[in-house]
Design goal:
single chain, about 350 residues, alpha+beta
C-alpha cells in the first residue's frame, strides 16, 4: 500500500534525546535511540530474549537496555550482554538505515541495501539561516493518501478553514496541475483579493497592511513517497504576485511530511518555513500556534472521512477536475509500490 524503499520522517530529534522511542513506520515496529556517538539509531522493536518491546527500556552509554530482563543491544542490532548470562550467540534484530538531517530523523523501512542518502528530500530552507521554521507533529487516523489528496486540493479551505485561510475565491479559480516525472504540481493564483484572517495577521507581523488588496498564490508540490511542499503567500496587488519583491509580500513554504504508520493511520509532521523576520521567535511561535489550529481542523475531517471509508469500503469515490493533483500523486505511489512488489 505504501512504498518502503524510501526515506520517511521517523521523529524529531528531541523525541529521542533522553529515552528510546517506539514508533510504527509503514507497518514496521521500530525503536529509535541515540548511540554512543549521539547518532540516531533504528532497530526492530523486539527483544530477542522474550519478545518485549525494546522501546520500553532505557539507553545506557549508547546501548539499548531491555526494560524486562536487562538484555543489552548494540547499534547494529547485535546482542551485547545480559546480567549473569552468556548471550553473545543470541540472534540479533534488524537494523534500519537512519539519517538525522534538516531538523528531522529519517528512516528507510525497506531494503537497507537500497538506502541512498542522496534520495533524501531537498529542504534547502532548513540549511539557510535566512529562513525560520516552526512546526509540530500530529497522529492522524487516516490513510496517508487521504492526507495527500487533502493537501493537493486546497479548495476545501473555503469550507474546513472558513475562519482562518479560507475565502470564496478558492471556489472561483480552477487550479492548474502538471506532472514532471515523479513531481506533481498544482497551482492556484487569486489576484485582487482580500487576505483571509491567517494571512492578514501574517502581513501585519511582516509590517504590511493586513487590510490591503493582495494577489494570493498556492503552489502544491507532491514528491514521493508522501511529502507535499506548498509555496503560499500574498503580495500587495499588482506587484508581481509570487515574483513580487520581498518588501511587498508575505510568503512561506507549508511543510507537510507524511509518514504512514498503518494502512489507516499516519504520523503527520507539519510546519511553515518563512524568509521574513526569521530572527523573530515570537512571530515563529504565533504562526506555529495558528497553523496548528488549522491542521487540527483537517485532522477532524480526515478521521471522519476514514471512518466512513472503512465502514463502507465497497463504495467508490468521485474525482473532479480539482482532484487532479491527488489523482496524479496516487498514480505515482501505485507505480512505486508495483515496482517494489515486482522486484
Amino acid at each position: 500500500m505504501f512504498p518502503k524503499n524510501a526515506w520517511y520522517v521517523a521523529c524529531m530529534p528531541h523525541e529521542i534525546d533522553e529515552k528510546p522511542l517506539g514508533r510504527r513506520i509503514c507497518g514496521e515496529p521500530i525503536v529509535f535511540f541515540r548511540g554512543p556517538e549521539n547518532q540516531a539509531v533504528g532497530l526492530d522493536d523486539w527483544c530477542p530474549h522474550r519478545g518485549a518491546p525494546l522501546s520500553l527500556g532505557q539507553v545506557v552509554e549508547g546501548k539499548l537496555v531491555c526494560g524486562y530482563h536487562g538484555l543489552e543491544m548494540g547499534c547494529e542490532g547485535k546482542v551485547v550482554a545480559m546480567p549473569g548470562q552468556r548471550v553473545r550467540g543470541f540472534p540479533g534484530v534488524k537494523s534500519y538505515p537512519v539519517i538525522e538531517r534538516h531538523g528531522f530523523v529519517w528512516v528507510w523501512p525497506g531494503d537497507a541495501a537500497q538506502a541512498d542518502p542522496a534520495k533524501l528530500p531537498r529542504l534547502d530552507w532548513a540549511e539557510d539561516p535566512g529562513w525560520a521554521y516552526g512546526g509540530g507533529m500530529y497522529h492522524v487516523k487516516c490513510d496517508f493518501r487521504l492526507m495527500v489528496d487533502n493537501l493537493m486540493d486546497l479548495t476545501h479551505e473555503k469550507y474546513v478553514h472558513a475562519t482562518s485561510i479560507g475565502q470564496k475565491e478558492l471556489d472561483e479559480v480552477v487550479p492548474q496541475t502538471v506532472t514532471e516525472g515523479d513531481l506533481v504540481i498544482t497551482k492556484r493564483e487569486m489576484p485582487g483579493v482580500k487576505a483571509p484572517p491567517f494571512w492578514a495577521t501574517a502581513m501585519r507581523g511582516n509590517g504590511l497592511d493586513g487590510e490591503a488588496t493582495v494577489d494570493r498564490w498556492q503552489r502544491c508540490r507532491f514528491m514521493p513517497p508522501s511529502s507535499v511542499m506548498i509555496d503560499v503567500g500574498v503580495a500587495l496587488a499588482g506587484q508581481g504576485g509570487f515574483d513580487a519583491p520581498a518588501p511587498v509580500k508575505t510568503s512561506g513554504i507549508v511543510v507537510d511530511l507524511i509518514t504512514p504508520e498503518t494502512e489507516t493511520s499516519i504520523w503527520y509532521f507539519w510546519g511553515l518555513a518563512r524568509n521574513f523576520r526569521p530572527e523573530d521567535k515570537a512571530l515563529t511561535a504565533s504562526i506555529r500556534e495558528a497553523q496548528g489550529k488549522v491542521f487540527l481542523e483537517d485532522l477532524e475531517m480526515l478521521e471522519a472521512q476514514q471512518r466512513n471509508l472503512s465502514a463502507q469500503p465497497e463504495r467508490k469515490l468521485l474525482s473532479l477536475n480539482t482532484d487532479l493533483g491527488g489523482v496524479q500523486a496516487r498514480r505515482i505511489i501505485e507505480r512505486l509500490v508495483a515496482q517494489e512488489q515486482a522486484s
